[in-house]
Amino acid sequence: MGSFVYSLKEGVKSLRVNGFMSFASVLVITCCLLLTGVSFLISENIKFALKIIEIQNSITIYLKFNAVPKDVQDKINLISNISSCNFYSKEEAIKEYEEILGKKITTFFEDEGNPLPDAFHVSMANISDYDSTILELKKIDGVDMISDRSETAKKLSDIKKLTAIISLWVIFSFAAISLIIVSNTIRITVHNRRFEINIMKSIGATNGFIRFPFIVEGMIIGLISASISIFTLKFVYDKIFEIINNIIPLSIIPFERFSNDMAIVFAVSGLILGIIGSIFSIGGYLKKEGAGAVIWQ
Amino acid sequence: MIEINKVCKIYGKDIVALDKINLCIKEGEFVFIVGASGSGKSTLLKLVLKEEEISSGSIFVSGRNLSGIKKRDLPYYRRTIGVVFQDFRLIEKMTVFENVAFAMRVVGAAERNIKRRVPYVLSLVSLEDKAKRFPCELSGGEKQRVGLARAIVNNPKVIIADEPTGNIDVSMSYEIVDLLSEINRRRTTVIVVTHDLTIVERFPFRVIELSHGKIRGDSKDVTTLASESFVS
User: Fold this and answer.
1) Percentage of the residues of chain A whose pLDDT score is greater than 90
2) Same structural domain for residues B145 and B162?
């Protein structure tokens, strides 16, 4: 217990002694976490916007004149990717035409009757499966034509994939940068304390005892960075949310929806980065067992 | 206690630091190891502390073959040996008390034991009134006494002192060796590496002379040794 408290104190003390490097590490990791957070928030908001577009982006299925709408609707509803299917009768369609083009339009085909087919407005749950869903719809008896929006679907799907890939790269790149920075800070601490470490080794300190204060230092750096970045991110995001909402009523996910999860993820990431960084930097030093590592240099 | 059998230490391909050394140091013995620079004194200490691996032969300490000690058990082995350095190796930002307590903390001692044991050990080296001083406020002799207190605080079976009088004046040197011999009276084996002949002459202990990696003399009588070879 005594050595545990001692190691904790040493970790905190070392953070203070290496003030500038500790500050630099906190700054860099905060920036990395912030940029990762920004990338995550942008990605989540794009996904959210795409979802809204997907919901609004319904396709129209035109029926053959002899088709029974009820039968077709039942078959459409059996397809798993269909999230909604609303009947759009030929009477509603002609009425819409009249509203846009005027009453005169109907006089052209008074004798033949309404030439427009019955239709369904259908929305897909996942626009990435657009092509396969269209194929399934085309196979249904009574379906004549389907309005083709494959281009839009493809673009939406591509944006989604690209956002996911960019987010992933951003997260990995910044994690790697943070690791290097933490490692270097701890390495400087190790270098500054090599004299103490040598004495520790000569009087029989285990590697765990020597390592622990450095791990504590890394953990504290990680946790401070995580706290600063989550608060900064919340502040900036809320401000942007407020400004955008005042200009255009755009749908942005409120920060509160992420705050708990993000706080946990940031804290854990900060801790892990700190721990791994310190293990990397002290590990190599502790391996150097002979050749002056203990007494004679 | 310490049994060194036909030990060779070769650095690189052909730099022979120790050449088939045979030596036996009994429990509770006080031994001076003398010799010029490059004679193999420090190498011998490194091997006993298992900081370096032997090239051939064997070393037994308290019946334990050092070659058989695994890396993870090394710290526990080293806890049985106290080391005194020529340059004191005190941590400047720590007080005298903290420097000695540090050695106990490293081995996981409880805080209450540290508070009880450190003042006692400091009293053994007559530094109880300087517990709150920092190393920069002490004389060379006092610093070495702190080093000595740190070496004995964990009750080691062996004390290894590498030129403990090298950085202090003559009267203080005698005081340090007096303290070491006092520790030795309590059945702790003491090995002192030195090239200071006046110290060796003054105390009636066994003297082992090393030269070019070989034992040239092993006697309690310093006059049988080639004294000119001590000059480093």
Assistant:
1) 2
2) no
